[in-house]
Each structure stands twice: as structure tokens, then as C-alpha cells.
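Record type: monomer structure entry
Structure origin: computed from sequence
Chain ID: A
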Amino acid sequence: MRAVSPPLLLLFVIGIVSCTDDVSAPDSGFTIDAVSAETEYLITDERTIWLSGSGFLTGDVVRLTDTGLSGHYYQIETAVADTGLHFVLPGNFVAGEYAISILRGDRVFRYGKARFFRDVIPDCEGMNVKGSVCDMDGKPIVGAAVSDGVEIALTDEKGRYWLATQRQNPHLFVTLPSNYMPVEQKGRFTAFYKPIPAVADPAACVEVDFTLARVSNDDFELIVITDTHLTAASAAQAPALFADCCIPDINSYVAEVKASGRPAYLINLGDLVAANYRNRVTLEDAAELLRQIKCPIFNLPGNHELNDYVLYPDMDSEEAMTEIRRYQETMGPLYYSVNLGRAHLVVLNPCVRTAGESQMSYSVSKEQLAWLRKDLALVEDKTAPLLLAVHTPIYSYNDDTYGRFWLPNGAEVIECFREFSNIHILTGHTHRMYTSVLENGRITEHNYNTLGGTSGHWTTWRLPTLLAQRRQGINTDGSPASYGTLSFSGDRVVDYCVKGVNLPRTKRFRAYDRNAMRLSAAAYLSPELAQGPRGQAFDASMGDYAVSSSENEILVKIWEYNPEWKVEILENGRLLSVTEKKDKDPLYLLCYEIPSYETMDSPGYPAPVRKLFSAKASSATSPVTIRITDSFGRVTEETMTRPKPFVSSFD
């Protein structure tokens, strides 16, 4: 492959736009005669392309429209000669298949179609895929890893690679090198992957090229969402709420990050939809909603996209496998890796289908682990951040089994990372929020709660409460509908935080004045219900909250607490004794369980959760200051004026 120095003559790019070719229909009075039959053009150092024919006029413009899914087009001024016209490809031109049109004012002549390619890459014996990885100037990117999810090939000094694939997976992907991002989308979220072209002869060599743009991303922000469940059975309004509330909040945060001079990326940890509710919102519809987020997006599948709850007689059947293909066509590969700045991000799929079984099990397949070991062997800096993104947790989310493996072959997965010293695991699935810090800080697992609130079913968004009016959801553990944010600078994770939708990033906890709280049937149900069996069940469900308290207890619910954090509660500057307790979250009870007793006997609230902290003040009216110090030494402080009314608000 030749290095390219874009020429200065003849070239003026009128537009390079990501939209469909919308020029007007051909005018029969506008023709070009003696059109060339040539359909392939080599992109040379001069990048000059000649189109033969007669009838060209000065001022004609050539339009090249990508015939793929993206519809990217280039409009370029030309120079006319006796035998045709010529034009120069712009420096950021991407090789591929294009339709050629000649524009003359508002008229158009469809010249034909052509393939634009760089150097001819020779075949290599035993290899059935070849290609190149280049930057936008056509310069080779040396040492880039290209993979089919089984084998990995590295580009040579000319940016070329060869790979033998058995087509176990439909895509080829490039592990994005640091400080590079894909140029084009072609209908995909972030185009680090391309389909392997279908051919009649599997031994025939096909070509797959990647063009990457240089970026500066040593410092960047990673946004994490999970378990949106836009097809939730209980909330037909979920897509509209996602579009009206969540996406604007995320885009506002993306804009804030970009204003600081850093790029933002987003990773979706799965369960965007559930396949068995596709009549509500299809995966394709949900993907279009997700594309409204204004930053590059990386995806991975959850159990629901892969149809955990539709019981096929055989999970390995052709019918069941359609869900996997549907996901791959819409969202991308099931597993892969990319480099974001100095961080290496590995995505794995733990949702396993077993032949003869009617339910999905959870583990990372042997095939993925074999690929993972090859991938990690190519990572040179084992001290830089290593990000592992998986839909299901690796470690247990039960406080009583803290540090044990939740994933059945979690130990085998973690063993692959034994040489790495700075591991952050990003997971969802549990609809709980917790952070585990293990092996003296070598491993941190961030398990994120749902973006939709109330276990991903969006229920509290519709309640006639202040909370719902402010367009804010709540999860069963008392944390807000939220997304994670991680800040990277060079080879360090310098901050991580959970941001509630429509809440400031600095809001990390809610404080309750226990004296002002009485969640009794008599206070919230009609007299008829309160005095009957439903009222008894109500009071039993509320536990100690059903009885008025005068013990001056302060309760603090922290969304993302981990053992490295310090929790301080002060009364008039005096530190109070703080204990962690296990109980139901009062705000969730107020917003979901209590209204549910009007229509059902048992709302089925899950087991009590931890991350509630308690202290007792000496007075019922003294102000109390809550001070939280996180793992990075960042202090979040809030003073509560007492008595504090118990209302449906995160304030």
C-alpha cells in the first residue's frame, strides 16, 4: 500500500454527508455518450479518477454515493477534457462500492457503478479473508488486530492482513487501536466490525477493509447503561419515556464531556428489549432509539435479547438461533474487543444456549475463552485499565456471599486476566446497584441498576407523585433510574460515579428523618382496606416503618457504596456512631409498594437491601450533616434540616 499525499489541484469537496442520495430523477435531455465500461478504480497516490465519455460540460459535478447501508456521498468538482472528465478523490475517501452520478444544476445523469480500491492485496494460501486497515489518508496502520472471534490476524507494514475463518461468526472486527475510531457507520452503531461477504466457495478469498480516523482519546468518559427493558410488559409508555427523559439527560452529559475537550463513549450492557415482547417494541425499533444518543455506542447482548423466556424445545434449534442472528444483524458481534485510549475493553457474552435444553444457562463459552486468551496476549501494558463488559455479574451481588463467583465459570474467566493489575468489570442483569472491590483493589466490579427504574419496568414513572411528575424513576433498592460514568486519564481511572436521570451527578444519596416517617395502613389506605386483611398485610410488609418513631434516627441510602468509602453523619459538628443496616428502602415503598396495595394484596417487594446507614441524633430538630468520601477522596456533603418531611422526592 502506498502512502498518500493529497494533491492540491483540481479538488474542491462540496459536501461529504451522511444521508441517502436524494438528487432528482434523471432528465432525459441530459446525456453523456461513450461511457466507459470500466467498473474498478485503483486509488493511486495522485487519487485522480478519469471518467470517459462525451457531452461533459464545465461546471459538472461528480457525485459518489456509497451503495452500502450508510448512503455516505461525496460531491466533487471536476475538470473537463476532450475525452471525458477527471476529479480527485478527497483525502478522507473510503474505499468501497459507489454509484457514480453527474450533476448539472438540478439535473442528474446516472453514470454507473464502480468499486474503488487501494492496492491489490495478493491471496495467501490457506487464507480466505484478506484486507487492509488504513487511516483516512490511506496510510497503513501497522499491528492492528483483526478477528472473526476465533482467530486473530495482525496487519503488516503495509496495513494488510490475512485470516483463515470457518465463519463461526458472521462478522469480522478490528480491535480499534488507541487514538483511532471508525470513519463510517454504514448502518451500524460504531463501525469497528463488518460482515464477512458471502461466497459460494468457502475457500474463496474475500476482502474486508477498515478505514479508521485518528482521534485524541487518551482522556475520555465512558457512559454505561443496562437493562432498559423497553418492551416491559407493565409499561407500554417505556419507549416514549426513554426518548423524552433518558436520552436527553444522557445527551446533556455527553455535551458536558465534549465541552471539557474529551470524547464520550457509551456501552449498552444488554436487555435493551425482550424478544418475547417484540410485538411491543422490536429490537430494530429500540436500536433506532438508542442511535439518538450523540456519541459512539458499543453493545453487548443480554439474556432477554437472546430470548431467554421463549421456551423452545431445543435452544440450539434453527428457530431459536434466529434470535442470535437477529441481534447480530441489528446490534453487532456477540463479543469483541476495542482500545479506548489506554484502556483495553473486552466484551463477552455469558448467555449460553445448550442443545436439548429449553432454558438459557450462564457461562462464558470455551470458544470465547480461547479467543480471549489470544486477545489479551496482544495487550502490552498490563497495568493500564482493563475493562471487562458482561451482561451478568462475575461476582455475587448478595452481601452474605460478597466476593464469591456468581458466574459458574467466573474463576476461569478471571484467571485469563491474572497478569492485569487494574481491572474494572461492568455488569448489569441483577437490577441492583453495588460495587465490589476485590484482591486489594486489583478488581472492581460495578454492577449497575436499570435505566428504567423499578426493575426495568418503568412503573414509578407513571405514578401521580412528585417523583413521577419530575420524570424520575426509582429502582427497588431505592437508587434512581440511572447510568454509570467512568472517567479515564491516560493509564488511570480517575473517577467513577452513578448519575440519576434528571439528577445532578453530585447527588449520590438520600437522607431520611425517621421521626417524620410512618408507613401504616391507617395513614395510606382507605378505612375499609386498612381495617381488613389487606391492611394487616400492609403493616406487616412495612415492618418497623409502620410505627411512629421518636428515636431521632437518621437513615441514609447511598446508591453505589463500596467498602472503600467513608460515611460520616454529624450533629452540630459532632460525629455520630454510624451502622449499616439491612432494610427496605422507604422511598421505594412510598412510590411503588404503598400505591400497589390499593389494587393488590401483595405487591411482591423483593428482600430487604443493604447500603442503608443509620445514626441517632440527640435532638429531633437539630440539623444533621451527611458526608460521604468515595474511593478517590471526593467528598459529597449535604445538610438535612429537621424535621424533614417524608415525601416522594430524591431531595
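Annotation 1: Residues 238-259 form the longest helix (22 residues).
Annotation 2: The two ends are 61 Å apart (CA to CA).
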